[in-house]
């Protein structure tokens, strides 16, 4: 990960959390930050300072806040400030989700299943409950998140008879519990996002000092079906871990038929020190209507990301539509090594479910 986001540093002696305000050409990976030993609790009056040591010429080191001890158990509450341990941006937790994590790297010892309706075999994988969070990303960091195909957004199908367009809420992300590096700040508006003050209220006596406004509760309740994160799928091939999170977006009528839409978010992580580059994608998309589609192409979303020790992860979102209320997707990514050799990385199979009887398309963003 390049840019100022990657240059946030933990000053161990003072427990300060700092951030370079401009992008750097040569930046250290953020991953070592996550491997620091847990800090001891710091009093609310802990000294925060601005360090000028080893400051690159023309760059300003800004104090962000004071790190807290990451939670090994339990969950973070609404209003918790954090740095993302992989992508480095500043964010704030809106609310948690309890998801089912299907990790094929720790599949059960049960015999493999027979071929399933999607036309491919799969191991018996038991879902394990795992906490994810809906968060807001600080707009100041968005231009520097180079390991994302775009700053994350939540997309919906607009519920207007004369429109087939999507509408998006920018700067929203879904974050796993282990991705969060919590910190505190005395700033009453520490995150710059158009929804921050609309969703959260500063109350000094609270911990964290930001509490949900009624508008946040109403927004979550109204759009729950489109925000809900229910299943997460993960698989590792040759030290490349692929994580997939599908989201149902809604249904639209077209030419006397129904078209169902899903968004899926994919993270690629290089767990090794060797440099690899994603070259091709190969998807198989099965619809309950009986169709099986094959999609091949160069890279993903117009990019062929390089995964290295310094920049180990890449994340992107895409969309798919079916003429049935459910289906399956699976496939492979082809990676290239520096010596020109190639290898295929499995994309874990995942279901596309609409729960159409329980969901009504959202009508827009109104509070």
Automatic annotation (TrEMBL):
SUPFAM superfamilies: ApaG-like (SSF110069), YccV-like (SSF141255). It comes from the Eukaryota. GO terms for molecular function: DNA binding. Signal peptide: none annotated. One of its GO terms (biological process) is mitochondrion organization. It is found in: Mitochondrion matrix; Nucleus. Pfam families: DUF525, YccV-like. InterPro entries: ApaG_domain, ApaG_sf, Hemimethylated_DNA-bd_dom, Hemimethylated_DNA-bd_sf. Its main location: mitochondrion. Keywords: DNA damage, DNA repair, Mitochondrion, Nucleus, Phosphoprotein, Transit peptide. Residues 234-359 form the ApaG domain. One of its GO terms (cellular component) is nucleus. Involved in DNA damage tolerance by regulating translesion synthesis (TLS) of templates carrying DNA damage lesions such as 8oxoG and abasic sites. May act by stimulating activity of DNA polymerases involved in TLS, such as PRIMPOL and polymerase delta (POLD1). Interacts with PCNA and POLD2. Interacts with SSBP1. Interacts with PRIMPOL; leading to enhance DNA polymerase activity of PRIMPOL. Interacts with POLH. Interacts with POLD1; leading to stimulate DNA polymerase activity of POLD1. This is Polymerase delta-interacting protein 2. It comes from Monodelphis domestica.
């Amino acid at each position: 990960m390049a840019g100022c986001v990657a240059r946030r540093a933990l000053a161990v002696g003072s427990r300060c959390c700092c951030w370079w305000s401009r992008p750097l050409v040569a930046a250290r990976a953020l991953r070592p930050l996550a491997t620091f030993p847990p800090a001891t609790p710091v009093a609310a009056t802990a000294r925060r300072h601005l360090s000028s040591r080893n400051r690159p010429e023309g760059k300003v080191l800004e104090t962000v806040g004071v790190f807290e001890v990451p939670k090994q158990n339990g969950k973070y509450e609404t209003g918790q400030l954090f740095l993302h341990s992989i992508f480095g941006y500043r964010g704030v937790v809106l609310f948690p989700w309890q998801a089912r994590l299907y990790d094929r790297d720790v599949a059960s010892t049960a015999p493999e299943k027979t071929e399933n309706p999607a036309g491919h075999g799969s191991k018996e994988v038991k879902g394990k409950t795992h906490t994810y969070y809906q968060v807001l990303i600080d707009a100041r960091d968005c231009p520097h998140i180079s390991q994302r195909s775009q700053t994350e957004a939540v997309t919906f199908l607009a519920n207007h008879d004369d429109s087939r367009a999507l509408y998006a809420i920018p700067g929203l992300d879904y974050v796993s519990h282990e991705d969060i590096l919590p910190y505190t700040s005395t700033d009453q508006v520490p995150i710059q996002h158009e929804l921050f003050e609309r969703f959260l209220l500063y109350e000094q006596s609270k911990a964290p000092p930001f509490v949900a406004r009624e508008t946040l509760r109403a927004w979550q309740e109204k759009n729950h079906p489109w925000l809900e994160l229910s299943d997460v799928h993960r698989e590792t091939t040759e030290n490349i871990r692929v994580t997939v999170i599908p989201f149902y977006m809604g249904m639209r009528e077209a030419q006397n038929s129904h078209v169902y839409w899903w968004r899926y978010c994919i993270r690629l992580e290089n767990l090794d020190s060797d440099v690899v580059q994603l070259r091709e994608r190969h998807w198989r998309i099965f619809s309950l209507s009986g169709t099986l589609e094959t999609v091949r192409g160069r890279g993903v979303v117009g990019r062929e990301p390089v995964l290295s020790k310094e920049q180990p992860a890449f994340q992107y979102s895409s969309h798919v539509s079916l003429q049935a209320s459910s289906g399956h997707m699976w496939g492979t990514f082809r990676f290239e090594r520096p010596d020109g050799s190639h290898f295929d990385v499995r994309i874990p199979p995942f279901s596309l479910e609409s729960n159409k009887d329980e969901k009504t398309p959202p009508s827009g963003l109104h509070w």
